[in-house]
Specification:
The chain is mostly helical. Helices cover 52% and strands 9% of the residues. The protein has helices at 3-17, 23-32, 51-71, 81-90, 130-138, 145-152, 160-163, 169-175, 177-193, and strands at 99-107, 113-121. It has a two-stranded antiparallel ribbon. It is globular. The relative contact order is 0.15. The structure holds fe (ii) ion (2 copies). One fe (ii) ion is lined by residues 55, 59, 91-92, 186. The site of one fe (ii) ion (FE2) has 4 residues, from loops.
């Protein structure tokens, strides 16, 4: 699939499911930003142009599968389709405008140094990760408690706050199982769908 195909798919999921007040302005901001061209990481998963949008689409599909598996065909009685789309498509808006195109020196097979393109992480708004996405999204539209929880804690045990000693994550997942399913969806997309 081409980079633009994922943008097309992202927009279809967005328009089909999200009608929240402010979501139109949010989409305008995404279009003005590098969201649709940014990579998903510097050198881990989907570190290429359009990787962030692709990752968001993959996470959405994994999330819907997990919701269906857990709650059945009528999973939207547990979590609305709008909430599922907001959580999955927008959980990583914290990565917008953070990746700068750059070059690094790498030795080729003959031991000769070559300049190769790469991405450098350069963050103008260091507000964290999941919490930063919640902060950005909340400036455009009101999030439900479930949406905010799932986006805020989508890194699970890899979250810097948890690594720093925060012990409340299990309470989050007990109270908001959807947040746990979403963390798993993010991992599945990263390690199963983007493992190439
Ligand atoms: Fe993330
Ligand atoms: Fe992610």
């Amino acid at each position: 699939m081409e980079e633009n195909d994922f943008k097309q798919e992202f927009l279809e999921i967005f328009y089909d499911n999200i009608e929240r007040d402010g979501s139109d302005k949010l989409l305008e901001w995404l279009e003005r930003s590098d969201f649709f061209t940014a990579p998903a990481s510097t050198n881990r998963h989907s570190s290429f142009k359009g990787g962030l949008c692709m990752h968001s689409v993959f996470v959405y599909k994994r999330f819907v599968k997990l919701l269906e598996n857990e709650y059945g065909k009528n999973w939207d009685k547990t979590l609305s389709k709008e909430s599922a789309a907001i959580i999955a498509l927008l959980h990583d808006v914290c990565k917008v405008d953070c990746y700068q195109e750059s070059f690094k020196n790498v030795k080729d097979d003959d031991g000769v140094w070559q300049k190769v393109p790469c991405y450098k992480f350069d963050e103008a708004l260091p507000y964290g990760h999941g919490e930063k996405s919640v902060y950005i999204l909340s400036s455009f539209m009101k999030l439900t408690r479930e949406e905010a929880m799932a986006i805020n804690w989508h890194m699970g045990n890899a979250d810097c706050r948890v690594k720093g000693g925060y012990w409340g994550l299990s309470a989050v997942f007990y109270a908001h199982p959807v947040a746990l399913l979403f963390h798993i969806a993010d991992m599945e997309a990263t390690y199963l769908d983007e493992n190439s």
